Amino acid sequence: MEPAPYAVDTWHGFQTFATTPAPAPPGPGEPERSIEERLAYHSAFVTVRTPAIDTLALSVRRLMLLGRHQRTTARPSLILTGPAATGKTTALLEVGRTCHLAHTRQHPAPPGNGQPAVPVAYVLVPPGASAKTLTAGFARYLGIPVTARTTQAQLMHAVTHTYNTAGVRLVLIDEIHRLNPRTTTGAEAADLLKDLTERIGATFVYAGIDVTNTPLFSGVRGAQLAARTSLVETGALPARLGTRRPFTDLVTDMETALDLRRHRPGTLSRHAPYLHQRTAGRIGSLARLIREAALTAILDGTERITKATLEAVRLDHLAETHPTPRPRGRTR
Fold this sequence. Notes:
The protein is an alpha/beta fold. Helices cover 47% and strands 8% of the residues.
């Protein structure tokens, strides 16, 4: 039976995500996996280390050190922003996983039934977020009870007290572009975040789609946010960057991780120009294309990915409707 899916916006789910070994291809000398095992592997697949993950990890580490002993005002924070399908959530979760594992290695859980520390919290901004629904998301992560009779002030006190008592050091807030300070409820939610950064002793990292082009950076509230946060931007990987080929390097790393019995190494790397045109260099679209092609190769028994296999995969709507323009005078 397949394990039940876990919601990473709860402590149990995030802890499970952080401590479960990441998927990996079989090592030399290991026995062949069954079809079901390989289908499951390619469904999850590896997380390839990208420039965005490296940049975010270094930036978060610096900010956590910078704000470690800050007591009277909010610690400096960071926003990860960029177009859709460029790896923002993946980068956010990988940095959270790294922080969680590093902290638990240095501060193992006490023996017996002692409560382990909770170094990382991951919260999703709900659509049309209000101050209360956003606070409820913080409460949900640590299992703080919320009833219809709970007032916002009571909920806020419970959240800040519990987060500080649990030792949360890094708060990851995803889908921040859902906040709209131009509405009454959105303004209240934005003010709430400001209050939380001042009352919880943690570094806050936000992620969202093209955040600088949203109302979050407009008006007085936007100016306050801009003054407290630094930006890390994700984007489509270029085919070339000077003498380097970042996109081809990513394709090569993903191809190396395949677990197909008759795939010819180097096939996908040779098709990197086509893959870049097809996905517009978007990491999310590329990962989906390769994963679906690998699953197809297992199910149809070919056990290899060819250009025909790739052509047969329908991509996400964004990639299908906004591919990279083909160079003139050349065919795929």
